[in-house]
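Take a look at the protein record below with the fold in mind.
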Amino acid sequence: MEEKTGLEEYYSIVNNKKMRFGYTTGSCATGAAKAAALMLFAGQEQRYVDFMTPKGISLHLKVLHITRGENWVSCAIQKDGGDDPDATSGIEIFAKVEKTENRGVCIEGGIGVGRITKKGLEQPLGNAAINKVPRAMIQRELENVCNDADYEGGLLVTVSVPKGAEIAKRTFNPRLGIEGGISILGTSGIVEPMSEAALIKSIEVEMRQKVENGAKYLLITPGNYGAAYMKEHLCLPFEENIKCSNYVGEALDMAVSMGVEGILFISHIGKFVKVAAGIMNTHSRCADARAEILSANALRAGISLESAKEILNTVTTDEALEIIQREGLLNPVMKELTDRILFYLNHRAYNRMLLGAVLYSNEFGYLGETENVKELTDLLNHQYRKGQEE
């Protein structure tokens, strides 16, 4: 019989599919810490642990790997991220709880929990990468256990993840300046599959980290293809790029709020052609219109009506570009596109920063760029060269 966790009735509908909820690394650490504390005071094994998450969902989790010492107990909870694709799903989060003479609950990170090495993150430099909500969850549960046991001494909680250092290589942590392991995260205690809010939050965290460490200008690509193109073809600090996925508008909004002075986007035309029509979420389920936008701009550049209709029947941007190139209008069409991309980028950012974009395709390579690209390139190279010198 399958064990119940308390999440059986919770799910999201994503692309017409039912996706089950999971629980965060923060909930795993909380469950392990509470179970260890209960065993420390009660003296008997705790096979399951129950607690309430900030989301308002009560979890019932199985306790693993129980070990004991004279004044300490250690155990683990295995993470289940539900149907959310997550590098940390399935890993075991350990918590060791030991009595101390100091009053209160002290929370530390052990093996496999990252350490903060750069400014701009939630925890101070040098701290374990255990965010404030998981810390508050652990503290609340352990204070309740201490009250129930009439214990007035202190507790030291050490959270560890034996496979954390290895798994962290597949996360954002190395880019953010979190070294040695994963982060213990979660604002609600619950993982909601494919959450756009979570993706946007991860972009915000990376952007804020850049800004807090002195960056005034940002280099942004929608994904890995942009970074690979930049590395091979452009003289830019490609390793400093932030990936915004489909969230061009949200990236601009966050940059404005943080006082960023400029952004250079490097993008495949398949994504950024949509921005030329003011589409700021480039996911195909929000809007496609690639052929329509290319056809309209080709008409502006002087293409024949028949060729414009032919573009409307294409499936990929490369097919459309072949028609445009056949008519000898690739450069004029790219000028029309990049002018409109810049207009809508500036419109979204209220003209509060210097903006630019470079477009490319896998088949045609470099296609065109907006005004200000050379200036932004110089500013970015100077910014990161200066940072290395310091």
Summary: The chain has 13 helices and 18 strands. Residues 196-387 form one domain. Residues 129 and 183 are 5 Å apart (CA to CA). The chain has a mean pLDDT of 93.
